Amino acid sequence: MARRPQSDEQWNAKRTTIIATAIRVFAQRGFHATKIEHIAEAAGIGKGTIYEYFSTKDELFLAVYDYWMDAYEAAMRRAADENVNDPLATADALIETAIAFYEEHAEYAPILLEFWAHALRSDDPHFIERIQQMKKTLGAIGAGVTQQLVKKRAFSPVDVESFAQLELGISDGIFLHWVLDRQRYSLRDAYRFRQAVIGAGLMRPMLRKLLGAKVSKRLKTGFLSPNNTKRSA
Length: 233
Hints:
- The chain folds into 2 domains: about 1-55, Arc Repressor Mutant, subunit A (Orthogonal Bundle), CATH 1.10.10.60; about 60-200, Tetracycline Repressor, domain 2 (Orthogonal Bundle).
- Helix content is about 75%, strand content about 0%.
- It has 10 helices and no strands.
- The protein has helices at about 10-30, 35-45, 45-55, 55-80, 85-105, 110-120, 125-150, 160-180, 185-200, 205-220.
- Helix 1 (about 10-30) packs across helix 4 (about 55-80).
- The longest helix is centred in the middle third of the chain and has 27 residues, at about 125-150.
């Protein structure tokens, strides 16, 4: 059982300090090469002190991800709530919130990638469950905004849950490419280009006329339904 300091405020402050230090050390050394001793030394505390707050390195690693995702999810909810009657403004606010998060954490991108990889390898289900929780939260926000856009006839009829999940994947992909490209272009411009492509579509009028019914059907049915799994191209 961890030994708590004099107050919850002190406890939370010390815990946050350990997490912040762990972020820097994980980023420098990588998750697997990092030892609790490295984090304790960087924080100027004893190794035993860290174990009063986190029983294992995995638990600390999960706390780092929680620390980021809790803040990110809260920011996305605020962005969605501030423009409830204007889905276009909400969509813009969500994009700006995502950009701000990615830019703020760009130097720590390897930690995010390591977390995803560790979640797939680990026997501890908490890692993949936390990612799924994040996807569910952000997917619900995105689906809600998309539904409003469809109702206001700003979007064509589309399976909103499929679209929201696809958007999450696109966002992560844009961030990954931006990091791998050494941030040589504006992340905001990349997101705005994505937004323009989605808004305008890629088909020319002749192709749109030829494939319109097929595309419309696919938009409406999406790809998340089990019945779509074995559908031919």
